[in-house]
Every structure is written in structure tokens, then in C-alpha cells.
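Contributing new complexes? Match this layout with NAP.
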Amino acid sequence: MATLTLENAKVLVIGGSSGFGEAVGRHAAAADARVTLASRSADKLRAAAGRIGGQCATAVLDVRDGGAIDNFFAGQEPFDHIVLTAGQLPPPGPLSLEHMKEQADARFWSAVHIARGARFNPGGSLTLVTGSATLRPPKGIAVLSAIGAAVNALSRGLALEMAPVRVNTVIPGPADTPLWDGMPPEQRTARLEQIGKGLPLGRVGTADDVARQIIACMLNPFMTGSLVVLDGGASI
Ligand SMILES: NC(=O)c1ccc[n+]([C@@H]2O[C@H](COP(=O)([O-])OP(=O)(O)OC[C@H]3O[C@@H](n4cnc5c(N)ncnc54)[C@H](OP(=O)(O)O)[C@@H]3O)[C@@H](O)[C@H]2O)c1
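Output block (do not edit by hand):
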């Protein structure tokens, strides 16, 4: 029977050095999981592991590089739960074709490589993360939204093809994480407050809000193929 705790579970968080991923790592470690955080920057990983405390392993991995993902999983024992939160915003303004392809590598093809390369213990799960723009694209980011929408569709197909491994996708709305740090601090605060005021709950999400949902995807043994919108009611 699938266990309803994360105690001793082997959890890999790709994108774990910041934001949603770090929060997942923190919640999982607090539940006595054996956590590995992966992302591009060894320094950021070390800092995140230090903030989480305990015995958090780290691995440098760039999800734009499919070969690196294949090599990483070739050397790994099976995991219980894998989470993919890695992603960064493209530069502002119209996207070049090069940036579009880079975003597709980081967000879509990364998930394909993980699904093909990773091995899971019984009761295992893969959780992907996209964003509410995949359901209601704002003007100006059509390709980025479509890449995320393709990930939503991919996760439902993978839920069939990888069963009994469970595959789910969490679709957050705007949330206050370091993703927004590219903006000047005052502008960042004002923008997030303005977005939050327009939501039924009166605020944007936090990394912890999203992490709680990701942990629920790991733990619910009947949950697969689900696309979970977590946007503070923005889409009502
Ligand atoms: N925050 C929001 O408002 C929001 C809303 C909806 C959707 N999302 C999406 O949710 C995901 C996570 O967002 P977040 O808010 O947690 O962002 P974040 O705080 O900026 O964290 C992003 C994480 O991804 C890692 N990363 C970026 N590019 C990578 C790559 N090529 N290979 C491996 N790791 C990579 C970063 O670490 P390194 O720099 O060390 O690589 C970092 O750990 C992103 O895809 C974002 O687009 C965010």
C-alpha cells in the first residue's frame, strides 16, 4: 500500500535551489524525506541546502541539456518522488527564436527526458509545474504559454504511459518568489500587491502555498493525470 508519509522517501526536486522547489525541499525534509535539490548553480544549491538544514543532498544539473538529464538518471537509484520546478523567465520584450527553443528545452523536453530516464519505487510520482498563463495566455507570451500548455498535455499522456507511477501538474498563478527578482524592488512589490488585490483572496501565492500542493500530489495515492490550478481564485 502506498504510504501516506514522506518519512525516508527519496525525493528529488529539480529547481530546488529557490522558490517553489526550495519550499518543496523544506517541507519534504521536515517530513523526514531524503531530499536531493538539483539546479544549475552549485552556490545557490549550497545556500538552499543550508537554509533547509538537515541532510539535504545537491546535484548540479541544467535541464536545458537533455543529455545531461539522461546521464544524471543513468547513475541514480530509483526515487520515490520527483518534482520539476526548474524554469526562468526569458528576457523582456519579443522572444527570439533562440529563446523560444531554449524555453522549450528547459520546460518541455526536460520533462520528456526525466520521464524516459528516471526510475521510480512503487507508489512513486512525478510532479510538473507550469503556470496559469498556459490556460489564459496574456498578450505577448504566446509561445511561452503554448510550451507550458504542451507540458500540461504531456503530463496527462505520461500518467497513462508511466502508470502505476503517478504524474500530475500544478498550475500556479503569480506567486511571490525570487522569480520576480529581476524587477527593481519597489516595482516588484507594487506589481505583486496590485495583482493580489485583484484576486478573491486578496494576495498572490507564496512558495509554501505551491509546495503544499506539490506535496499533496506526492502523497495522494489515487491522484494521477490531474492538472491542479492554484491561483487564489484568479480564474473564477
Ligand atoms: N513565481 C511565480 O509567480 C510563478 C507563477 C507561475 C509559474 N511559475 C513557474 O514555476 C517555476 C518555478 O518558479 P519559482 O517561482 O520557484 O522560480 P525561482 O524562485 O526563480 O526558482 C527557479 C528554479 O529553477 C532553477 N533553474 C532555472 N533554470 C534552470 C535550468 N536550466 N536547469 C536547472 N534548474 C534551473 C533555478 O536554479 P538555478 O538558477 O540554480 O539553476 C531555481 O532553483 C518556473 O518555471 C516559473 O516559470 C512561477
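Reviewers usually confirm one structural detail per submission. For this one: Residues 15-21, 39-41, 44, 61-64, 85-88, 106, 129, 131, 172, 174-175, 177-179 surround NAP (CB under 6 Å).
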